[in-house]
Write a structure and sequence with these properties.
CATH class of the largest domain: Alpha Beta
Bound molecules: adenosine-5'-diphosphate
CATH superfamily of the largest domain: ATP-grasp fold, B domain
CATH architecture of the largest domain: 2-Layer Sandwich
Shape: globular
Helix content: 25-40%
Number of strands: 20
Structural class: alpha+beta
CATH topology of the largest domain: D-amino Acid Aminotransferase, Chain A, domain 1
Number of helices: 15
Oligomer: single chain
Distance between the termini: 62 Å
Strand content: 25-35%
Strand order of the largest sheet: 13-12-9-10-11-14-19-17
C-alpha cells in the first residue's frame, strides 16, 4: 500500500481524499494555490505545498509544479480528484513516467473515453446502446445539416472534448442549425481548445441515469447501482438521488450488469461512471467519466462502500474488496449541491462566510471544506458544500433533507439553499416524476409568475 499520496485538487473533494488517507493510515500532501492557503484540506493534510497563484492554469493545472511537489515530498502516488487534471491523459502518463502511481485508470482508457465520439464507438462495439447520431466528428455544418434532416429535429450538437455542459447546443430545425453549430463550435474551441462536434438526436423527456462502476487489475469489475441526476440546470446537476424513482428492479439490474460488462471487457482499472439517458424504458449511453464523481457519496450511503478507499486500493494493485453479490442496496439517499450563488439569478456569490452552522443528526452527512470565517475565492467552482442524507424510504429521505437544509446556516454569502427547498416542495418532485428538462421548465414558469405578480 502507498505510504504517501499527493492530492492534486482543492475544496471539499481534496478534504474527502485526505479523510480516506487518514483512515487508511496513509500520509497526505495537498497542493494548493495562494488563494487556498487557508483551505480546510490544507489544514487537515499532513503536508501542503503551494504550487502557484490563483488562476488554475498556473496552479491546479500546472503539471511541472505538481510533479515537483510530489518529488520533494516523497509521495508515491497522485490522486487527481475531480475536474482539473483528473481526466487528462497526458497528466496520467507523466505521473507514471516520473515513477508515481496515478490513482485512476490507464492513460489509454482516459484518452479513449475522453474523446466522446471514440467513447461512443467503443461502448457500442461492447454492447451498449447509444443515442442515434453521427458516426464520429462532423466534417462541416453542411454535412451536419444533411444528417440532422435524416435523424429528425431537434438535434443536439456536442463537443467531442465536452464537459460540464459546455459546447452543447440544440438545433430545433433547419433555420437555427447553422447558428447552433457555430455557437457550439466556438464555445468548445474556447473551453477545450478543440472545436470538433458530433451530433445526437435530442431526447425530449429522458432521465439522466448513471451507473457507478469499479474495476481492478485482476480482471474484476462490479457496479454499485445507479444515481438519478435528472434535476439539472444548464446541464449541471443540482440535486441527485439513488436509487432512481424511475427504474424498476429489473431495469436497474439490466443497466448495472450491462455497464459492468463493458468495463470488465475493457479491463478497466479504478472507479468510473457510465452516464446514460433513459427514456421510454430504454437506456442510451452518453459518456463515461473516468474518475470519481461529485455525487459519489449517495452511492456510498446506500451501499456502505467507501469508494475513495476502494479507488486507492485498486490503484495499489489490490483486488476489489467486494464481489458483485456482496453489494446490497439499503434505503434511499439524496445529495443537494450547495453553491455560493444567488438562488434566483444564479450569479456567483464568493466572499467571506461570517457564520456557519452545519446540520447533523441521524443519516446526515456534510462533505464540505468551508468553516466560520472562510472566504470563498471567486476563482473556482461555486460548489461549497454537499449535503447528503440517507433514510430507509424516499419519503423519509426527503423529509430528512428538508430538515437538514432548514438547520444549515451559511451567512455572509448567498447560496442556493432556497432553491433546493423549493424543488423539494414540488408535487412532481415528491412523486419522483421528472426528467432532465423539468427544473428549467419549472424555473421558467416560476419567473413568469413572479413577473406577472410584480
Ligand atoms: P458534459 O460532459 O458536458 O456534462 P454530457 O454528454 O454528460 O455532457 O451531457 C450533459 C447533459 O446534457 C446530460 O445530463 C443531459 O441532461 C443533456 N444531454 C446530453 N445528451 C443529450 C441528448 N442526446 N438529448 C437530450 N439531452 C441530452
Amino acid at each position: 500500500m502507498f505510504k504517501k499520496i499527493l492530492i492534486a485538487n482543492r475544496g471539499e473533494i481534496a478534504l474527502r481524499i485526505v479523510r480516506a488517507c487518514k483512515e487508511m493510515g496513509i500520509a497526505s500532501v495537498v497542493v494548493h494555490s495562494t488563494a487556498d492557503a487557508n483551505g480546510m484540506a490544507v489544514r487537515m493534510a499532513d503536508e501542503s505545498v503551494c504550487i502557484g497563484p490563483p488562476p488554475s492554469r498556473q496552479s491546479y493545472l500546472n503539471i511541472p509544479a505538481i510533479l515537483s511537489a510530489a518529488t520533494v515530498t516523497g509521495a508515491d502516488a497522485v490522486h487527481p480528484g475531480i475536474g482539473f487534471l483528473s481526466e487528462n491523459e497526458q497528466f496520467a502518463r507523466m505521473v507514471e513516467e516520473h515513477g508515481f502511481t496515478f490513482i485512476g485508470p490507464t492513460p489509454e482508457h482516459i484518452a479513449k473515453m475522453g474523446d466522446k465520439a471514440v467513447a461512443k464507438d467503443t461502448v457500442k462495439a461492447l454492447g451498449l446502446p447509444v443515442v442515434p447520431g453521427s458516426d464520429g466528428i462532423l466534417k462541416s455544418p453542411e454535412e451536419g445539416l444533411e444528417l440532422a434532416k435524416k435523424i429528425g429535429f431537434p438535434v443536439l450538437l456536442k463537443a467531442v472534448a465536452g464537459g460540464g455542459g459546455k459546447g452543447m447546443k440544440v438545433a430545433h430545425g433547419e433555420d437555427d442549425f447553422k447558428s447552433a453549430y457555430s455557437m457550439a463550435s466556438t464555445e468548445a474551441k474556447n473551453a477545450f481548445n478543440n472545436g470538433d462536434l458530433y451530433m445526437e438526436k435530442y431526447l425530449t423527456a429522458p432521465r439522466h441515469i448513471e451507473i457507478q462502476l469499479i474495476g481492478d487489475t485482476h480482471g474484476n469489475a462490479i457496479h454499485l447501482g445507479e444515481r438519478d441526476c435528472s434535476i439539472q440546470r444548464r446541464h449541471q446537476k443540482v440535486l441527485e438521488e439513488c436509487p432512481s424513482p424511475g427504474l424498476t428492479p429489473e431495469q436497474r439490474k439490466f443497466a448495472g450488469e450491462l455497464a459492468a460488462g463493458v468495463v470488465k471487457k475493457m479491463g478497466y482499472r479504478g472507479v468510473g461512471t457510465i452516464e446514460m439517458l433513459f427514456e421510454d424504458g430504454k437506456f442510451y449511453f452518453m459518456e463515461m467519466n473516468t474518475r470519481l464523481q461529485v455525487e459519489h457519496p449517495i452511492t456510498e450511503m446506500i451501499t456502505g462502500v467507501d469508494l475513495v478507499r476502494e479507488q486507492i486500493r485498486v490503484a495499489a494493485g489490490l483486488p476489489l474488496s467486494y464481489k458483485q453479490e456482496d453489494i446490497k442496496f439499503n434505503g434511499w439517499a439524496f445529495e443537494a449541491r450547495i453553491n455560493a450563488e444567488h438562488p434566483e439569478t444564479f450569479v456567483p456569490s464568493p466572499g467571506k462566510i461570517t457564520r456557519y452552522h452545519a446540520p447533523g443528526g441521524l443519516g446526515v452527512r456534510v462533505d464540505s471544506a468551508i468553516y466560520d470565517g472562510y472566504s470563498v475565492p471567486p476563482t473556482y467552482d461555486s460548489l461549497v458544500a454537499k449535503l447528503i442524507v440517507h433514510a430507509q424510504t424516499r419519503e423519509e429521505a426527503m423529509k430528512r433533507m428538508e430538515r437538514a437544509l432548514g438547520e444549515t446556516v451559511i451567512e455572509g454569502i448567498q447560496t442556493n439553499i432556497p432553491l433546493q427547498q423549493l424543488i423539494l416542495a414540488q408535487p412532481d418532485f415528491r412523486k419522483g416524476e421528472f426528467n432532465i428538462h423539468w427544473l428549467e421548465k419549472f424555473l421558467a414558469v416560476s419567473q413568469q409568475t413572479a413577473k406577472k405578480a410584480s
